[in-house]
Write a structure and sequence with these properties.
It contains nine helices and nine strands. Strands 1, 2, 3, 4, 5, 6, 7, 8 and 9 form a nine-stranded mixed beta sheet that branches. The N terminus is likely disordered.
């Protein structure tokens, strides 16, 4: 099959994309006596199979990647041992709200009929689910925004969780550890993210906020990904998200055998994407970078406290 002739419609690249029947037909045209079953047997004997692309190449890792993972493990263990809150945060995949295709399958007598195209103008809006996973109590909180995924929205969601009178309490609540990805609305480089953490958490509640970011390309190790978001995706797989209420109910209905419980809230307010942080505002932050990987690890202290 590797032999090729200029202008041959069955070039090597096209052979690998053909069905068994198509390969057999082309071989018959070349005067081979063969059927699709024999083609399958011969390909199997040669260790060929139908394969998809597999995401397995991570590229050149950051030189501080392992060091950061060890630091996160150490700090997380220390916080949990002392009864202090540890949360994992991130924005889940944004979803169009309406009668659109939602990947997955479920048991039903008849498949749901949805729109052929996913046009934004046909949607009620776009859901922006910002999640918070409480490692201590195995509880998830998802704040579904109707606006934009901004640093202000991310900090607002965390502040709403902290102020929730019904959330579980911790032995010590003078400090909060936030585990986050290096990108997205809680990007480690965003001054706007730090500014809103300062104002909405550290200053408002008088707590010290320690943030640890996972290295770039390592978001799958962030606990919220496999302990909360994956479970929500399984719960609503194959079910059209036709309304805001439907989205909230599917999130709230997410449970696991390990005891996961999830609360969901609609955040119907606008968050401006064009905010800037001046040099004066940066200088006014009580930002203390940690000695280890300071771009990924830093603490924001309440400004009401004395230096």
């Amino acid at each position: 099959m590797a032999e090729d002739v200029a202008g041959d419609p069955m070039s090597e690249d096209k052979w690998v994309r053909r069905s068994l029947s198509s390969i057999a037909q082309q071989l018959v045209k070349r005067r081979f006596r063969i059927g699709r079953t024999t083609v399958r047997r011969l390909l199997k004997k040669l260790d060929y199979g139908l394969c998809r692309n597999r995401k397995s190449l991570t590229g050149e890792p950051h030189p501080d990647r392992d060091r950061q993972f060890r630091y996160i493990a150490k700090i997380k263990k220390l916080f949990l041992a002392r009864g202090r809150p540890v949360i994992s945060v991130d924005t889940k995949k944004k979803e169009l709200v309406g009668n659109f295709l939602n990947s997955g399958r479920n048991w039903t007598k008849e498949a749901d009929k949805v729109n052929v195209h996913d046009f934004k103008q046909d949607a009620l809006g776009r859901a922006v689910p910002y999640g918070i996973y409480d490692l201590t109590h195995n509880q998830g909180y998802v704040y579904v925004g109707t606006s934009h995924d901004t640093p202000e929205f991310a900090a607002y969601a965390i502040a709403q969780w902290w102020a929730d009178p019904d959330r579980p309490r911790f032995q010590q609540e003078d400090q909060l550890l936030i585990l986050a990805d290096a990108g997205g609305s809680n990007n480690c480089r965003y001054w706007l993210w730090k500014k809103h953490l300062q104002e909405q958490l550290a200053d408002r509640f008088g707590i010290e906020v320690l943030v640890c970011h996972y290295p770039t390309g390592a978001s799958k190790w962030n606990p919220i990904e496999y302990r909360l978001f994956s479970q929500i995706s399984l719960n609503w797989a194959g079910k059209p998200l036709r309304s805001w209420t439907t989205i909230l109910n599917y999130i709230r209905g997410t449970v696991t055998e390990t005891g996961l419980r999830v609360k969901a809230f609609l955040v119907d307010r606008t968050f401006d994407r064009n905010q800037k942080v001046s040099k004066q505002e940066r200088a006014a932050l009580r930002l203390k970078r940690r000695p280890i990987c300071p771009n990924w690890n830093y603490m924001l202290l309440p400004r009401s406290c004395s230096e």
